[in-house]
From TrEMBL:
It comes from Arthrobacter pullicola. CDD domains: LPLAT_AGPAT-like. Residues 223-232 have a biased composition (Basic and acidic residues). Residues 223-252 are annotated as: Disordered. The lineage of its organism: Bacteria, Bacillati, Actinomycetota, Actinomycetes, Micrococcales. This is 1-acyl-sn-glycerol-3-phosphate acyltransferase.
Length: 252
C-alpha cells in the first residue's frame, strides 16, 4: 500500500490541528522508541483506558515519522466528515464474517506489506477493570499477527485517563496532565507461527501479548498488576458499549 499524495496531505492537515491541541492539553514522555522495527511493517498492541487513547498513540507514532493505521469499525466509515477522513488516511475497516472479514485481513496485510504500523486494541474495547488494568484480551490481534507474519509490539500508555476519564464527557485540563507511552520489544510468537490457528494457539498468543502489555503498564504505573486479568464475561458484563456496569459507570 503505497502512500498517496491525498493520504499524506490529509495526515498533515489533521496533525496540524491535533498535535498542538495534544501538546496544550498534556505533557508527554515517550520511551522505548529503540524497539520500533526499521523498514518493516508491524502490529502495535496498545492498552485502552479512555476514548482519546487513539489520539495519544497516533501522536506518538506520527512524531516518530510513522503514519498510524487503525482497525476501525466499518460503521465509522459512514459517519459524515469522520468517514472521509478515515478513508483518505487509509484506515482499515473491520467487518465481521465472510467477505468482510477477508477484506479486513487484506487491508491489514497491505499496511504490513507497506512497512506500516497497524494499531490494534487487543482488549476490543475500553478496559472494564475497575482500576484500569489491561483486561482479558480477544484473539483478533493474535490472529492478525499469525496470519500476516508481522511482529507484535506491546505499546503501553498511561495518563490520558486523567484528561478524559473512561467514558467521560468532560476534559480535565487543569492542572496540566502528563501522558507516558512505552514501547516494548516484540512479543515472541515464533513457535506459534506456521501452525494451524486452533483456539489453543490463538489463546496462547493472546495471553503472551496481554502479559507483555500488562507488564509495561505496571512499569508506567509503578504498581504491581493484579494476579488475574479482569474477565468481563465472568463478571456478567456486556462486552462492548457504555453502561456495562450499571450505575457504577456513570460518565464524569
Amino acid at each position: 500500500m503505497g502512500e498517496s499524495a491525498k493520504s499524506r496531505i490529509t495526515f498533515t492537515i489533521l496533525a496540524s490541528v491535533v498535535r498542538p491541541a495534544m501538546n496544550l492539553m498534556m505533557g508527554r514522555r515517550w520511551e522505548g522508541m529503540e524497539n520500533l522495527p526499521k523498514g518493516r511493517g508491524f502490529i502495535a498492541c496498545a492498552n485502552h483506558v479512555t476514548e482519546i487513547d487513539p489520539l495519544v498513540v497516533g501522536h506518538f507514532f506520527y512524531s516518530q515519522g510513522i503514519l498510524p493505521r487503525y482497525l476501525a469499525k466499518a460503521s465509522l466509515f459512514k459517519v459524515p466528515v469522520l468517514g472521509p477522513a478515515l478513508r483518505a488516511t487509509k484506515q482499515v475497516p473491520v467487518t465481521r464474517g465472510g467477505a468482510g472479514a477477508a477484506a479486513s485481513l487484506a487491508g491489514a496485510q497491505s499496511v504490513i506489506d507497506a512497512d506500516g504500523a497497524l494499531i490494534v486494541y487487543p482488549e476490543g474495547t475500553l478496559t472494564r477493570d475497575p482500576d484500569l488494568w489491561p483486561m482479558k484480551g480477544r484473539t483478533g490481534a493474535a490472529r492478525l499477527a499469525l496470519q500476516t507474519g508481522a511482529p507484535v509490539l506491546p505499546v503501553a500508555q498511561w495518563g490520558a485517563q486523567d484528561v478524559l476519564p473512561r467514558y467521560g464527557k468532560m476534559l480535565h485540563l487543569f492542572p496540566r496532565k502528563r501522558v507516558r507511552v512505552l514501547v516494548g520489544p516484540p512479543v515472541d510468537l515464533s513457535d506459534l507461527r506456521g501452525v494451524p490457528l486452533t483456539k489453543s494457539v490463538l489463546d496462547e498468543a493472546t495471553e503472551r501479548i496481554m502479559a507483555e502489555l500488562t507488564d509495561l503498564v505496571a512499569s508506567l504505573r509503578g504498581e504491581k498488576a493484579p494476579a488475574e486479568r479482569w474477565d468481563p464475561a465472568a463478571k456478567g458484563q456486556k462486552s462492548v458499549g457504555r453502561g456495562y456496569d450499571g450505575e457504577s459507570e456513570k460518565t464524569k
